[in-house]
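Person: At home tonight, work slowly through the protein below, taking as long as you need, and write a paragraph about the fold.
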Amino acid sequence: MALNFSLDSLLEQSLLTEDPWWVYILNGAWWTIGLTIAAFALALFIGIIVGTLRTAPNKFIRGVCEAWIELFRNIPLIVQIFIWYFVVPELVPWYKDWLIEVDPAVGQFVTAFICMGLFTSSRIAEQVRAGISSLPRGLPNAAKALGFTTVQAYVQVVLPMAMRLIVPPLTSESMNLVKNTAVAMTIGLPELTMRANEMGENTFTFFAAYLWATILYIIIALVVNQLMAWVEKKSVIPGFIAAK
């Protein structure tokens, strides 16, 4: 009976909007999904560049890329998001002015997007490097023998194969990113965990709020997992990865 009463609170009108609580929390899920997609796109773009340069023959370039990876990978995510939200604006006046003028949710979203994109890029960069290193050494040499320049060999031969090899670890990174978005609540972004917490604080029905949030997280994670499994199946390389 007490359990039914707790769950019934999800159907009650929110004290913060005109929607019921379950819709209020569901709207937070859209912030979570949007942040996941945007941050993963940024992480993939930067991670491919940094990971590729980690295999460059130039020691200085490799050193810079390694420093980038160690910097973002070894500082806790919650510390990084505080730095981006509270410290960086003080060092970049125009960015601080923009944060003051723009809608707070938009400023929080952009901050979380940058922070989580860079944080995840350091992990993806290592996976890209490992993918390139796992390829036969004769592959880039064969490309050069066919007249490809070093850049062409990487862009047209090495990277396409390496990216297909690292789809499984990218699946794990994408699912980790879904969970990491909850850290954005610390700077006020109204994402899924933040909305569930607000319901709990206003109604004292934390069980119903976090149960609904948990269900939504599971659904999002399962969708991401199935999407990446489809990508893995379509990008399989005969002789390297056996299709399931």
Notes: The chain has eleven helices and no strands. The mean pLDDT is 90. Residues 69 and 122 are 5 Å apart (CA to CA).
